[in-house]
Amino acid sequence: MLNDPAVFDAGDIWMSGETSDMSDVRETLLAKQQELQDRSADLTAPPDASGSISFGKRVGDGTSMAVERITQVAAHEQVLFQVEEVARALAKLDDDTYGICDTCGSPIPEGRLEIHPWAVLCVPCASV
Ligand SMILES: [Zn+2]
């Protein structure tokens, strides 16, 4: 199984070295941005035709919907934050500062970028 080269269908990544890595990163970021924008559109689409839900009339039927709405708003904020992060990472690609921490200027470890290609901060700065 592991000896079967067809398992690793990643030919061009290995063939053309560093520059293609960077355009792969860009593609990954653009795909992520698209995904986030789709998700953002889903989250902002009202679940029913009435649009906004009124809070605090009565604690009852509305509560679970309101809670759901709050969760959705929080999720949306997180998506927006990620959109910004991805946009910043794309700008850094253009600036040639991709992989460099925005806060302290240290290189962001490769392992982190693999998991989180839109990372613009190193681990210590990101956890502040
Ligand atoms: Zn840093």
Describe the structure.
The chain has a single domain, classed as DksA, coiled-coil domain (Four Helix Bundle (Hemerythrin (Met), subunit A), Up-down Bundle), CATH 1.20.120.910. By secondary structure, it is mainly alpha-helical. The longest helix has about 35 residues. The chain is elongated and about 55 Å long. Bound molecules: zinc ion (ZN). The site of zinc ion has 8 residues, from helix 5. The site of zinc ion (ZN) has 8 residues, from helix 5.
Q: How many whole angstroms does the radius of gyration measure?
A: 20 Å
Please write the string of helix (H) and strand (E) elements. Answer: HHHHH
Question: Which percent bin holds the helix content?
Answer: 55-70%
Which band does the percent of strand residues land in?
under 5%
Summary, kept brief:
This protein is mainly α and 128 residues long. The protein has helices at 11-15, 17-44, 61-95, 110-115, 123-126.
Give the topology, please.
Layout lengths: L10 H5 L1 H28 L16 H35 L14 H6 L7 H4 L2
Helix pairs in contact: 2-3
State the main characteristics.
128 residues, mainly alpha, Four Helix Bundle (Hemerythrin (Met), subunit A), 5 helices
